[in-house]
Amino acid sequence: KARMASRLRSTWFLVLLAATATGQEWLKKTYARDPPAQVIRSERGSLRWIGLLGEARLRHGGPIYDCAIGKRRLVTVGGDRTLRVMDLESRRTIRVIDTDERPYAIAVESGGPRIVVGTETGKLRIWDGDTGKLVRTIDAHQAAVNDVDIGPGSTWVVSGGADRLASVWDLSTGKELRTLARHPEGVRAVAVSPDGRRIATAAGTSAFLFDAATGEFVHRFDGQSVLTSVAFSPDGSVIVTAAMRRPRLWNAHSGAEIRTLGKAEREPGPLRTIQLPILALSVAFSPDGRRVVSGTMSGKVYVWDRATGNQVRVIEAHHFGPSAATYTGDGSSIVSWSQSVVRVWDAADGRCVFPVDGHTDAILALDVDSKKKRIATGSRDTSLRVWDMTTGQTRYVIAGEREVTGVGLAGKWLVSARPVSKGPSLRIRDMSTHRERHAIRAHAKGTTALARSADGKWLATGGRDGTVNVWGAQSGRNVRTLRGHKSRVNAIAFSRDGKRLLSASLDKTVRVWNARSGRLLHVLSGSRGAVNAVAVEPRGKWIIAGGRDKRVRVWSLAGPDRAQEVGQHGDIVYAVAVSPDGRWAYSASLDKTLRVWDAVTWTQADSIRVDGVGSAIVVRGNQLWVGCRSGVVCRYEHVRAKK
């Protein structure tokens, strides 16, 4: 059994050690939330969750804390307080187990059904993976359980906790067999040797080796930096540790250091203002003992040669955030996880073998063609995808050098925008031939927003230069340029009849234009921050917008001088939309909610949690398509969307 001995939760501590005070506040704001479990119905029942488009089978509704591999099974635990069991042969989720507290660490019985989970409150919970039933609960630690590992024969388990203790427990009775010596700091990782005679632990900057039978201390390995993971080689002769510096190999018998893996290179962490060394967050040996795999702070997965210490391969596993990795039992595959996603890679060539369909980073743009059953998505992972709405499969993928900031399905034309300052930032493709029809340098500093008219004949783009351009979808000709914004244009929308064009900007205003003449009709102010999203009622009666100040505002076009503040999210608003009959409005925010607003009373009608953060909303009939920053498209039905 190959298994990682460290949870991703410990990485936040590592970054805080190296980051500035500003960086610490950023990390707290971005990662400190406890993501709720995904629900299938909204608070008041009017929104019904239908499904996901993308990597639904291997995705949690929150960050993944640990992963374990047993016989034909892969089990993950996450911040959504669930255990997910996947069959490695069919690669389908066969069971989801809900828990009442956050599971931080996991171990799977080799060849058996039992799953041992360490929780935030210091408990060990033993589950039957076949039935999903809780078998036993052990009050193991006085603080969070950081890691667990099952000994050979599956008769006992060792746990390490934030209370600085590591203990051995009988799996059948739940009785404590022995406690290892108190560590100088909280125990972050534990590992059992293949023969069951030794237990390795990691705490602070050192790893410790104990006799499993007696609990006596044997060796101490000083890592010189905070350790996050520890693992034994298949023959038990070598220990590998992961730390803020590169992975290191140790002789398990003498305690002497063998070598440090890789060259002393540096790469950026998630904070762009600082430089960090390669942070090895997890380590694991291949089943034959010839390779070591490590997950890093940058999201990359490194494969090392044990004999020489040289780097064998770098896998661009995850585009943002820390990753962890381990080998499957037969050594043919590497499993990596980061944030809420698990991926499987071919160990021989580093090719992604599952999932092969779906975005690997945030969806930034979305469009839906209900008649032709097509969905277009643009992502931060630089890819543009067109999906079959019926099967959920990707029809084709177009890669690029920068993220996709806009997509449009205009009849037979597929339109995409990217924030590139050199070269074409607007491309129009013929979907019947898959050939590019036009490549246009739409804005001098890159294109940041894109919209199409309802009839598909016209396109509008917004740029970093604050201008708005109108284009013929078929000809690719610039019809007119609209000037007035003082900063970047974040969002654009056409009215249903195509007569009006709306633009929202970083300059805190929304501007309403005559789409045919280019004349400025209204300047809508009142926002206290950048306006990120805008939409108009189908008959043109009112406009809704949301932005950085977390508020949702409405302007009546009969008298648009004053904005009506209809509600407030818990964080930045990224997307707004209106139902086809104008009866309802919708907004999505960084607070991970999708909210429904009654357009008659302008009160909140409902709210539902989304998979990650909603960054784009498209409404077709009574169905909502929400592009999420977790890389998937969530689909909902609004059962009260009709009059």
What does this protein look like?
With 643 residues, the chain is mainly β. The protein is 3% helix and 51% strand. The protein has two helices and 58 strands. The strands form 15 sheets. Strands 1-58-57-56 form a four-stranded antiparallel sheet, with no helix packed on it. Strands 2-3-4-5 form a four-stranded antiparallel sheet, with no helix packed on it. The longest helix has 11 residues, at 21-31. It is elongated. The termini are far apart. Mean pLDDT is 85; it is low at 1-39 and 264-277.
Provide a compact summary of the structure.
The chain has 643 residues and is mainly beta.
Number of helices: 2
Beta-strand content bin: over 45%
Strand order of the largest sheet: 1-58-57-56
N-C termini distance: 58 Å
Radius of gyration: 27 Å
Coarse shape: elongated
Major sheet description = 4 strands, antiparallel
Mean of residue pLDDT values: 85
Total number of β-strand segments?
58
Ranges where pLDDT stays below 50 over 5 or more residues in a row are 1-39, 264-277
The portion of residues assigned to helices is under 10%
Which class of secondary structure composition applies to the elements?
Answer: mainly beta
